[in-house]
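Ticket #305: bound-state structure for fe (ii) ion.
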Amino acid sequence: MIPVDSMHVFDSTGNRSSDGSATNPDSNSTRIHGRSAGRVVLALTLFLMILLAYMLIEPYWVQKKYYLIESDEIPQVFDGTKIVFLTDIHHGKFYSKARVRKVVEDVNRMNADVVLLGGDYVEGSPKYIQSCFDELKKLRAVYGVYGVLGNHDHWQGADSCRHAMAAAGIKSIDNGAYWITKKGIRIRIGGVGDHCEDKQYPERTIDSVNVSDFVLLVSHSPDYAMEITTDKVDYMFSGHTHGGQITLFGKYAPKVPSRYRQKLRTGLVSVKNCKVIISNGIGTAFIPLRFFARPQIVIGELRRI
Ligand SMILES: [Fe+2]
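RESOLUTION: The complex was predicted; output attached.
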């Protein structure tokens, strides 16, 4: 005979309820599932918050990206010449004047022989044009600073940009070109108008050159490389793609503003008639986020082979 006060009620799983009554197995399992789902949602939220925090931080993590620019057309006197290429600053509400100043200081510390600017100086309003060039006028290079315009500059006012650029002592190679001379020997530096918003006149760069002259071309968009029909251009510098800005760990970007998508997204690419160096640029377009497409200052060193 079992005493009444020592009797307990057990449920079907062998668990005893605190008040002695049997628990409902269905409600127990619902509670367990509810707790697991809660943990999954919490982990997912945490993961997304970390991801977003990283995407907000990456635009500040500037990479110095080095390239050897090799050619047997590079004259001996230009061997070792340092070209710094800066593009897609997008000075605007997400890229402050102080950040432009900092990047200019970084470039000046590199002691460049030539600084090339790839356009998209501003974003969102024409009011940023003057303040951007107020900083860019401090850029220093032995043989000068040269630049083209990008699509965003056209949207905010190409003429204002051109005026501000000239006043800042930056030589326009927007459908223009210059010879750089050292000890009487020369190389050609030119550029073309923006591929989306302007026309391209490469003849202004290449008409006066021989096939044996070394020629660098700047085009805001890398897509122009596919339209080059002459073998007079040796290397082209471009931006515009921002490396995709948001990528799948640097391997693939769902959105690239190029007809050729991943092929002309970032890095050094050989196309039919020249080689293209595509920079991820400095700023961001539309949203202040990057993911595995770090902002870049490109440093190219001329190497005679
Ligand atoms: Fe851009």
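RESOLUTION NOTES: The first helix runs from residue 25 to 57.
TICKET STATUS: resolved
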